[in-house]
Amino acid sequence: MEPPSIAVQAFRSWGAQVEPLPTSTKEECDWLVSLEECRLIAEEKTKFEDALSIEHRLKTLRGGGVHGQTLPLRSNNRLSGIVRKAVGQLSSTSADVQHDLRVLWFTGTGFDGEAKHYQLMSTLYGSTRVFELNGDGHHRTCYFFRNSDFYRFRNVLDGAYVTYLNGNTLTVKLCLNPYSSKWKSLRDSPFAARLKNGLIDPFGEEGEGAAYVIDGEVDRSNPGAVIRYLEEKYGLKQAMNIDMGMTSASILVPRE
Question: How many structural domains comprise the chain?
Answer without folding.
Answer: 1
